[in-house]
Design goal:
single chain; mainly alpha; Sufe protein. Chain: A; Cysteine_desulfurase_CsdE; Cysteine desulfurase sulfur acceptor protein; Fe-S_metab-assoc_dom
């Protein structure tokens, strides 16, 4: 697979701990919603070539693409995009946990606990929760295939 340049700040410049603190500081859902949109803007739009190298993940409310590259050091670089701003923001949050992690580390993540820690679990619609679950299953499949 060719080297992909779909870089983003999630998991490096923006960590899960940063996002957890930011999300927990927002008491109103509207403020969390605005933060998700802000995160979505930081995730670059994939060009057509890169989007074709990604997999469209079924089960999401909006179209979502997620791709990856196995780095030489055994970690995984993930890239993605979505047509929906909220879903794209949620994808950005997931990327903070999985970007440049080993497959073993990704498989050890308790994603339920991960989203509980953000305070988002109880505020997302069933369809968005189903979409997140579809993304998590695809991420775990990638990790299993690359162990």
């Amino acid at each position: 697979m060719p080297s992909l340049t779909a870089t983003h700040p999630f998991g490096s410049e923006i960590t899960f701990e940063d996002l957890r603190c930011d999300l927990q500081a927002q008491s109103a859902w509207e403020d969390k919603y605005r933060l998700l949109i802000k995160l979505a803007r930081k995730l670059p739009v994939l060009d057509e070539v890169t989007r074709q190298q990604a997999q469209e993940v079924k089960g999401c409310e909006n179209r979502v693409w997620l791709g990856y590259q196995l780095n030489q050091n055994g970690t995984l670089h993930f890239f993605g995009d979505s047509e929906g701003r909220i879903v794209k923001g949620l994808l950005a949050i997931l990327l903070t946990a999985i970007e440049n992690q080993t497959p073993q580390k990704i498989l050890s993540i308790d994603f339920s606990e991960f989203f509980q820690a953000t305070g988002l679990s109880g505020q997302l619609s069933d369809s968005r929760l189903n979409g997140i679950q579809a993304l998590i299953q695809y991420i775990q499949k990638i990790a299993q295939e690359n162990q």
